[in-house]
Each structure stands twice: as C-alpha cells, then as structure tokens.
Amino acid sequence: MISADSILSFWSKLGLILAFLALVFGVVEHPAAAQDIIVDNDDGAPGYTQTGSWTTSTSTGYNGGMYRYSDRTRTLSTGTWTPTIPTSGRYEVHYLFRKGSDRTLDAPFTVHHASGTDEVRLDMTGAFTVQEELLGIFRFNAGTEGRIILSNTGGAGIYISDAVRFRPATDEPPRISQVANVPLYPGAGEPTFAVARVTDDFALGTVELHYSAFPAGVSDTVIAYDDGAHGDRSAGDSFFGAAIPGFDEGEIVTFFFTAVDDESQITTSGTAQYQVGTVPSYSLVLNELLASNAYTNTDPDYGEAGDWAELYNAGPDAADLSRYALSDDPQTPARWAFPTGAALGPEE
C-alpha cells in the first residue's frame, strides 16, 4: 500500500526535477492561463506569417518549440502574429522569446489595435532563457483584425521571432470619492459648485452631475469638468466640478455624480445634500502648534520635520475650511489658504 507521505514525497521530488530542468534548458516563461490566447510561430498561418529572411534556431523557444531569428543586415523581414480575439476589450500583450547577449537592444513592434496603431521598442538582450516582456495594454475588437508585427528595422543585433500572449486585462469601473459642495453652506440665491474626485484605471469618459431641488421641483443633469474653472481645484487633478444654480432659502438640494469609462462601465456616487440658507454652528480651535521644528513629528509623506498646526472642530456642524487661511505674517493673512471644498467634520 502506498502511503500519503510517499505520494507527497514523489510530487516534491518531481517538482525539484522540473525546476532543475527549467534552469538547465532556460524555460522560465509563465504558464498559459485558461483565458490566454497564445499565437506561436510554430503554429504557422493564419496565426503566424513571416516575410523576408528568417533562420530556424537549433535552440528551443517558447513552450519547448522552435523560434526564428534574423538581423538588420538581411532584407526587410517581418513576423506577424494575428490572434482570434473572442470578445472585444482590453488585452495585455506579452512577447515570449529567448533572450541572449547578442540580441538587439531595439526591436520595433507595431501593434494594430481597435484605436489605431502604436509602435513599441523592445530590448531583447538578457540571460539565455525564455522570458516574457509586456508590450502594453491595448483594446482589440472581436475577430482577427488585430495583429502584432515585428520587423528587423531597429538596432544592430539578432531579432527573435517566437510567440505572443494576449491576456484579458482587468478593467475596473470608475471610482468616485470626496463628494462635496462649495460653499458648504450656500445662502439664498447663491450658486454652488458640486465637486468629486473621479479616477479610472484606464481611460475615463464622461462625468455628470445630477441634482434636484425640493420643494421647487427643479432637476437637471450637467457635465462635470476637471479644468480648474468649475470649482474643481486645479485642471487635471482628478477633481471634477459642475455648477448648481442658486435657490430660495429653505430649498433642499440633493445631488450625486455618475462616471462612465471608455468600456461603458458606469459608477454612481452616493448622494449629498444641503439646505439653502442654513446657518452653521461650529467652533474651530487651534488645538496644537509646533514651531521651529527640526527633529520630531516628521511628515509621513516627505520625511521632513517641519512646523505644523492642528485644528479641531468642536461642532456641532461641519466647518467650511475653504473660507479660512493660516498665516505667520500679519501683512499676509491668507498665506496658506485651505483648498476649495476643504471641510472639517464635527469633533474632528
């Protein structure tokens, strides 16, 4: 009878043997995942085609197969990988090949994708093992219109034609945070800017503000901008803003944001609300102050031991800090103004 320990011992030894073989033969590429699309020069047409002058190497390439090589002294030579993409979307494009000290430092790849073409330059030098390099993340339409083309028109050295991996890229929906209105307590008839921080891991599309006023029964949807001109701090800082018109005292205004990325994924923020004409009650206290600091309480972001002050809001309402500034110079009272939308909650 074979014991469980014997079976485990067998698989442990097998793992060591496989690791040893990988070191000997230089095969260190990552295994293909179920959703990966691999186009290998071994496959031939229609997935792989070539022109010009290529020589088949006696060494192994990706997955133990063959690879081809050329150099720029030969006639114009290209290798083309054409995947069959099952679903339109973004894909990581990885090149799998055997590196070497005699390879070119400058191999040009042309990526034909859904939005056009991009050229990527790849350094093929390195240890004599099969390795994987990311060419980039691109959007491909379903079908066979996308392709990757390598040509021998870059720098001196050997060009390797082997395999390309297409892996679906994770594309998260947009993220919305720090929803606020500026000013925090608008008066009667005073226009207000609604502001939110909106980010996306790839490309952000449209950001919209949706608002309504009760009991006026007014509602609207407007485009929010990150241009520094809509209460959104600075242009290009991921804060988006849009204007809400002034309303009569007592009106309750509710608003929220939606954001869409270039994959049509939609995110809706939580709602925020204010009542026009609210007179806030809060008490701001300069709670602590450290001046002429040289050694203690360093800034966690920069590691600097600078001067600092701590503000405390005793409440009961949130404090609109955007109406305030700090200074150490009576002649320049607004030396350090709080940014648009800055607020301090009660008992913070």
Concise structural overview:
The protein has 348 residues and is mostly beta strands.
Structure description:
With 348 residues, the chain is mainly beta. It is 6% helix and 42% strand. The chain has three domains: 22-168, Sandwich (Jelly Rolls), CATH 2.60.120; 175-275, Sandwich (Immunoglobulin-like), CATH 2.60.40.10; 284-344, no CATH class. The protein has one helix at 4-25; strands at 37-40, 48-51, 55-56, 68-71, 78-81, 89-98, 107-113, 116-122, 130-140, 147-151, 158-161, 163-168, 175-182, 192-199, 204-214, 218-223, 239-244, 252-261, 266-268, 272-275, 284-290, 308-313, 319-320, 325-326, 336-337, 343-344. The chain has a five-stranded antiparallel sheet, with no helix packed on it. It is elongated and about 80 Å long. The termini are far apart. Mean pLDDT is 86; it is low at 1-32.
Layout of strands and helices, then pairs:
Elements: H1 4-25, E1 37-40, E2 48-51, E3 55-56, E4 68-71, E5 78-81, E6 89-98, E7 107-113, E8 116-122, E9 130-140, E10 147-151, E11 158-161, E12 163-168, E13 175-182, E14 192-199, E15 204-214, E16 218-223, E17 239-244, E18 252-261, E19 266-268, E20 272-275, E21 284-290, E22 308-313, E23 319-320, E24 325-326, E25 336-337, E26 343-344
Antiparallel strand pairs: 1-12, 2-5, 3-4, 4-11, 5-10, 6-9, 6-12, 7-8, 7-10, 13-14, 14-17, 15-16, 15-18, 18-19, 18-20, 21-22, 23-26, 24-25
